[in-house]
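Supplementary Note 3. Input sequence used for the single-chain structure prediction.
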Amino acid sequence: MPLSLSSKIKYIFLKLIKIHINIYQSYIKMAEQVNFNSLNMKISELLKTYPIEQQKNIFEYLSEMDEHHRKAYDIAYCHLGTSFNIARCNGFKQWLAEKNPK
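The predicted structure, written as discrete structure tokens, is reproduced below.
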């Protein structure tokens, strides 16, 4: 049975709403992204796949590093390459535990 004109309009309208919702969600996600480039440090692309709260924590941790720790980070990042993961580093874990005591 063919759809009536009003049914087709409703269907198209609902599709457009769904498209607009998807665009809005993408816009919100882009607005929430952390700007790691502002740190002037080598950063793995993997960080961009982490949940936004974890990205914010990592950004805060990296931005609080002193020069000595930045050098250590750069050495670890260069030597370990793609196997380096800041979220699994002891320094980050310790910092996070101190920031969020239980």
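The chain has a mean pLDDT of 86. Residues 10 and 87 are 47 Å apart (CA to CA).
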